[in-house]
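Help!! Second protein's tokens look totally different from the first
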Amino acid sequence: MADPEHLFKVNVVTPDGLIYSHRSSIIDMRAIDGQRAIMYDHTPILTPLAIGDVKVKRSREMSGRVDHIAVNGGYLEFSNNVATIIADSAERASNIDVSRAQAAKERAEKHMQEAREKHDQQSLKRAEIALRRAANRISVYNTRK
């Protein structure tokens, strides 16, 4: 049977397993080379993702609901109307523990300051990534309805 809404499957997988699986009309995410949107029948693609918010617009029967998922990098593969995101970690907005994310943000800021004082570029870079991940989780958490 034909799909009148032109929906495709979206799966998000982490080392802990499948954390998200729904049908979508469009997904929007940040790849390392810029913003991307994927729709039904998109050309097959494999692209690395940046730390960011993956927005999944659901079907009309779901009132056009948009699910937000915080991903910490990874890859998006799209072919045969299936989008698969493979990430080291990913959390739906509704599952984010914002107090834990805030604590991670504060720790990262502290580590950045210590690394600057010691002129430790490697530690500074790790702390900056940790800060971006924590800030992303907080931002995605704030998008939930």
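Here's the second one for comparison:
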Amino acid sequence: MVHTERITTEITEPITVFLIGMRVNKLLPFSKWWKVAMAMPPMIASLMKHPEKGMLHAESFFRFGPMTTIMVSYWKSPEHLENFARNPSDPHFQAWQDFYKLVGTDGSVGIWHETYVIEPGRVECVYANMPMFGLLGATKNAIPAKGHRSTFRKRLQGKEAVTGH
């Protein structure tokens, strides 16, 4: 469903934002980067099947030239994220080991990630003509972007928005 009005969302507890991706540095051998890329779908399927593992929402993107992927995911906490990454019974653990056996430091395929913990009152977002996307997809809490939520500064500062800055 596309929300046609301007909406926002708010968080009441810290939320962890995790960015992860892959960059193909050498097109050949195809099998190396393809195996790395194909490791992600089973991880996401497992996380969607088990919401108790803490992933709230995820969005994936792809760029050509050079081929690069990025996934933006939202988690209940950094502990949930770390537990998933390090648990030998979850699919990430084996994929991580397989990457270092298959690619190691040969430079053919790059992987990266960044983690941010965002506190309530320190995040701002707005959506227009959008479905449940990004942080809104994680919170599932669409709020009209009106009144004390009508501008970037007001949304970022909350009800006590400071004016004149």
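Reply: Different proteins will give different token patterns, so don't panic. Strands lie at 7-8, 15-24, 55-63, 68-75, 109-118, 143-144.
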